[in-house]
Design brief:
Elements lengths: L20 H12 L2 H8 L3 H4 L3 E8 L4 H4 L4 H12 L4 E8 L28 E2 L3 H14 L11 H19 L3 E7 L10 H18 L4 E5 L16 H12 L3 E3 L10 H15 L3 E22 L3 E10 L5 E5 L12 E6 L2 E7 L4 E21 L1 E3 L3 E4 L2 E2 L5 E2 L3 E10 L2 E2 L6 E10 L2 E8 L1 E2 L4 E7 L7 E10 L6 E12 L3 E5 L6 E2 L3 E7 L2 H6 L20 E10 L2 E2 L4 E8 L6 E2 L1 E6 L2 E7 L4 E10 L2 H4 L4 E13 L2 H29 L6 E6 L2 E7 L7 H6 L3 E3 L9 E5 L5 E5 L7 E3 L10 E2 L2 E4 L13 E6 L4 H9 L18 H4 L27
Parallel strand pairs: 1-2, 1-4, 4-5, 5-6, 16-24, 27-35
Antiparallel strand pairs: 2-3, 7-12, 8-11, 8-12, 9-12, 10-11, 13-17, 14-15, 14-17, 17-18, 17-22, 19-20, 19-23, 21-22, 23-24, 25-26, 25-28, 28-29, 28-33, 30-31, 30-34, 32-33, 34-35, 36-37, 36-44, 38-39, 39-40, 40-42, 41-43, 43-44
Length: about 850
């Protein structure tokens, strides 16, 4: 037999006689490679080898347990779990039982569900000290009144309290956490809200357990009862418990599928033993199956393999008077002492032994009833953590997909170094058993030159979805001679998967497709590569995005189109290190098309990430790879022409939109003017009634010429938001305007409340007054009415035309009283120049 490379040579014995030196040397050599001696010199306490973990046990104490577990096997099973634990293990126990007030009425809590008692220990108990383990067992006995059934089953609140314990302790200690939920029925309390509790657990609690990778192992006792209600998400309470485990990557157990029929210690205790072994890297084996005793002593043998560093023997019996004796390979009876602990219980006996002697051991059981024996071993030669992945997705943070290749890796190590020895065989099994069906697939892992064992396994897509058990065993000459084993849970779900469509037939395929990318001229390529502009490329570029190739696809599940999937993708040229982000467009009814960046001809890999609805994949994602062979072709002249025509149209639309926004943003004419001549009101007009050409109205909505507001020429008004109206002189006529106090107007826009119109011909006539205009930022109702009187429109019966004059002298003839002022021209005569305004 070959042993691990580098196995230490520690001589245990030396020659007694100096004359036998050669034999002494030989004996040293033999003992140096003898596994029993090697393991003794290298042995350490099993307590020190126990990984850190926090386990919250939710123990059903409801009244129905009087029928389903009248002898309290479940409490003994919890005690066995405590006895197996050691340093690094922390345990908290919560009673699944309704809490009553002083008057005996059941209390209600969140969602008006029943309230479970607070954890029986305020803080999780450290299992490193024997006295603390004994104290926890005593607490369970006292709090449960010797495992006495009581009231109802407030499962929601009990799991919520377990979640709070994990949040407060698992995260703080940075150790993995898990929950064991033992119950005999669906959630129930005095309100009869079973379905509501199940729905609340499913939507409120399970996503949080799943997010933190806190599995819930469920143990169902008793008959599989049905869940009433038309809106019940599960038919039976076993279905509900299995869904709890499936969602959180736990394992479901039921005593109906146990070793013996019905609720029995031979079923419940092994459940806890199996759970402990999975989380603490122990090799569990049913060395002695369920055996019926005849009242006398029944002896059975079992083997302890080499390299076993620590051994736990768990003997479960259903008769409290049955006695158990253990003899080692030297036929010596095992007693408590240094390195050996014995934990008795009415329904089990646990022998905990450091550095056990390899060979054939004997178990003697005296009494009646039935018994079985399981062993838990910790080996010096051990398997490293199982690595299970599908592409970039691993079981550490997500579920895997049925129907996709799953890679399994591990190493066989000694003192943290890989064992390079062909003597060892690693065999694995992927199994599932539940209401949806069963599955079992054995496989053998192959070792590469680095000492890594691996195997690629594809589970059929139509296999049951749920939490699978993956077990790998390492052995030498026989599969019964197990050196070490590892068991882990792998959640397998049905994920919708993307399939690319062939360009010619539009049929889905998982093979490589051929597609083309169009190369546009540099300006179009640059323009439609801009982040915002690229969203408008479909029409001008005729479905051929700049610098990208297109592929069509569909999402399917079990061969059927799947709607409601979430899909993202990244692509990269073959052997490229950095993938580019792809654009995926939902075409409805499970169809999509994808644009992925290309830089040159070649084979591109599309990395899809897919997630179904929460009920299908519980928020997990699936990584899938598809390939496309891309050829880049230049755009044709027709394609270039169409692209440029539509691009120009886009530019015109953009200019129009900007001008509309500018039109809306600018202020518009408002307010009015009021004129007087020699102290008499001459007229008024609202700027809002001004008439302008459509070009000025659209492009210069905040500007207005004086003649458009029925004033003499020479002014340009600019309107601002608020009450601002600014003015400046405009053209030759601007020389005829002054400020209200007679100063010349500034050439820049300025706000003026009073303006004077005094034509230049009045410069030599000091008596000529002209007209004064008061600019008002608002238009009163009276002003609007007066506007109608001075409107030029002949259609209104209320209008009268403003007076006109033959020349400037006529306009300014309103001087101080003089005879000439009484001889104005008739109002009906037309104006001959810009000064003939009145």
């Amino acid at each position: 037999m070959k042993y691990p490379q580098g196995y230490p040579a520690f001589p245990q014995r030396r020659g007694i006689f100096a004359l036998l030196s050669i034999l002494a040397i030989l004996s040293v050599t033999l003992f140096a490679t003898h596994p029993a001696h090697a393991q003794r010199t290298q042995s350490t306490s099993h307590l020190a080898a126990t990984p850190n973990s926090l386990t919250v046990i939710v123990l059903d104490m409801s009244g129905s347990m009087a029928t389903n577990d009248p002898r309290g096997y479940r409490c003994s099973a919890v005690d066995a779990f405590i006895d197996l634990s050691g340093p690094g293990n922390y345990i908290s126990v919560i009673s699944l039982d309704g809490t009553k007030d002083a008057n005996g009425n059941l209390l209600t809590g969140p969602h008006n569900f029943g309230v479970a008692p607070a954890p029986w220990t305020p803080d999780p108990v450290d299992m490193s000290v024997q006295s603390k383990r004994d104290s926890l067992k005593q607490t369970i006995q006292t709090k449960s009144q010797n495992c006495k059934p009581d009231a109802t089953t407030p499962t929601y609140d009990a799991l919520n309290k377990a979640l709070q314990v994990l949040q407060a302790n698992s995260q703080a200690r940075e150790i993995p956490g898990s929950v064991i939920l033992l119950t005999d029925g669906a959630p129930d309390d005095s309100n009869g809200d079973t379905v509501d509790q199940i729905n609340a657990i499913d939507h409120d609690l399970l996503p949080q357990f799943k997010q933190h990778n806190w599995p819930i192992d469920t143990i169902a006792l008793g008959e599989n009862g049905s869940i009433g209600g038309s809106n019940a998400p599960f038919v039976t309470f076993h279905d509900f418990l299995q869904a709890v485990s499936n969602t959180t990557t736990g394992k479901f157990y039921a005593d109906s599928k146990g070793i013996v029929p019905g609720t029995n210690a031979l079923n419940i205790a092994p459940f806890f033993t199996d759970i402990f072994a999975r989380y603490n890297h122990r090799t569990v084996k049913n060395d002695i199956p369920a055996t019926t005793l005849n009242g006398d002593t029944t002896a059975r043998n079992f083997s302890v393999t080499p390299y076993t560093d620590h051994l736990d023997i768990v003997v479960v019996k259903d008769n409290t008077s049955t006695r158990v004796t253990l003899k080692n390979a030297s036929t010596q009876e095992t007693t408590a002492g240094a390195g050996t602990h014995i934990y008795p219980n009415p329904y089990y006996v646990i022998f905990s032994i450091d550095a056990p002697q390899s060979g054939t051991w004997e178990l003697d059981v005296t009494g009646s009833g039935q018994f079985l024996m399981n062993s838990l071993k910790h080996s010096l030669v051990k398997l490293s953590t199982l690595q299970v992945s599908e592409g970039a997705i691993s079981t550490a943070n997500s579920a895997l997909a049925l129907g996709q290749p799953m890679e399994i890796k591990t190493q066989l190590t000694y003192q943290n170094q890989p064992v390079l020895d062909n003597t060892y065989t690693l065999q694995g099994t992927l199994s599932y058993s539940g209401a949806a069906g069963s599955y079992n697939q054995p496989f053998t892992l192959q070792r590469d030159d680095t000492g890594t064992y691996h195997f690629t396994l594809t589970t059929p897509e139509d296999s049951p979805a749920g939490s699978y058990q993956l077990q790998v065993k390492a052995f030498t000459t026989s599969a019964d001679n197990i050196i070490d084993s590892l068991t882990t849970s792998v959640r397998m779900e049905r994920f919708p998967t993307p399939e690319l469509l062939t360009p010619d037939t539009k049929h889905p395929t998982r093979n490589t497709i051929n597609t083309e990318a169009v190369a546009w001229d540099p300006i179009l390529h640059l323009l439609y590569s801009l982040p915002l502009v690229s969203r408008l490329d479909s029409w001008p570029l005729q479905g051929h995005p700049a610098g990208k190739a297109e592929a069509l696809g569909e999402v399917t599940l079990l061969g059927q189109i799947y709607t409601g999937a979430s899909l993202s993708a990244q692509s990269a040229l073959q052997n490229a290190r950095t993938p580019g982000q792809d654009d995926i467009y939902d075409d409805g009814k499970g169809l999509f098309h994808i644009h992925f960046p290309v830089t040159t001809n070649g084979l591109y890999t599309l990395h899809f990430t897919t997630s179904g609805t929460f009920n299908d994949s519980f928020g997990d994602t699936l990584a899938t790879q598809r390939q496309a062979n891309v050829t880049i072709v230049p755009a044709t002249p027709v394609q270039e022409g169409i692209a440029w025509l539509i691009t120009i149209f886009y530019l015109l639309c953009l200019i129009t939109i900007l001008n509309i926004l500018r039109f809306v943003a600018l202020a518009h004419p408002k307010g009015s003017w009021l004129s007087n001549h020699d102290g008499e009101v001459g007229g008024s007009f609202s700027f809002q009634r001004s008439t302008r050409g459509p070009i000025q109205w659209y492009f210069k909505p905040n500007l207005l010429y004086s003649e458009q507001a029925k004033m003499p020429q020479g002014l340009l008004f600019r309107f601002r938001h608020g009450n601002g109206i600014e003015v400046r002189p405009e053209g030759v006529g601007g020389r005829n305007w002054q400020t209200g106090d007679g100063r010349a107007l500034r050439t820049q826009f300025s706000e003026e409340r009073e303006l004077r119109y005094r034509p230049t011909s009045f410069a030599h006539d000091e008596d000529a007054i002209g007209a004064t205009y008061l600019i008002q930022a608002t238009t009163s109702r009276s002003t609007r009415n007066s506007v109608s009187r001075y409107d030029d429109s002949p259609s209104s019966p209320r209008t009268r035309r403003l007076p006109t004059y033959e020349d400037e002298d006529d306009y300014g003839s309103r001087r101080r009283p003089s005879p000439r002022s009484q001889k104005r021209k008739p109002a009906s005569r037309k104006r001959r120049n810009e000064d003939d305004w009145f």
